[in-house]
Amino acid sequence: MPKERAETEPAVWPVWAAIVNNLANLHADLGAMDEAAPLYQRALEGFEAGLGPSHPMTLSCVNGLAILYAEQDRLADAE
Q1: Whose CA is closest to 52, among 20, 3, 17, 7?
Q2: Residue 16 · residue 46 · CB < 8 Å
Q3: Pick from 25, 34, 38: which is nearest to 64 by CA?
Q4: What is the phi/psi pair of residue 61, to 5°?
Q5: FRET label pair with 35: which of 42, 53, 62, 64, CA 20 to 30 Å apart?
Q6: Cβ atoms 64, 21 nearer than 8 A
């Protein structure tokens, strides 16, 4: 990876993660839970990498994923 891209990419992660998280929310709202779960996972990875595990946006994504798992009766995954 070129050095310029490596230096700027982490700054883009939260923006990218927010877009993916919004897409996951849309799928969940439409009842497409199987499509929403991997999107929430990808968004969570981006938020954690760009903002850290305790940032409010990261925690909001975790909450969305936990709600999705609870609605799918995947309570062990929701923990």
Answers
A1: 17
A2: yes
A3: 25
A4: -65, -40
A5: 53
A6: yes
51/75 Cα distance (integer angstroms) = 26
Angle, vertex CA 8, rays to CA 10 and CA 58, nearest 5: 20
Q: What is the pTM of this model?
A: 0.82
Distance in angstroms (rounded) separating the CA atoms of residues 55 and 65: 16
Residue closest to 40 by CA, chosen among 51, 24, 22: 24
What is the number of alpha carbons within 13 Å of residue 19 lying toward its C-beta?
4
End-to-end CA distance of the chain: 36
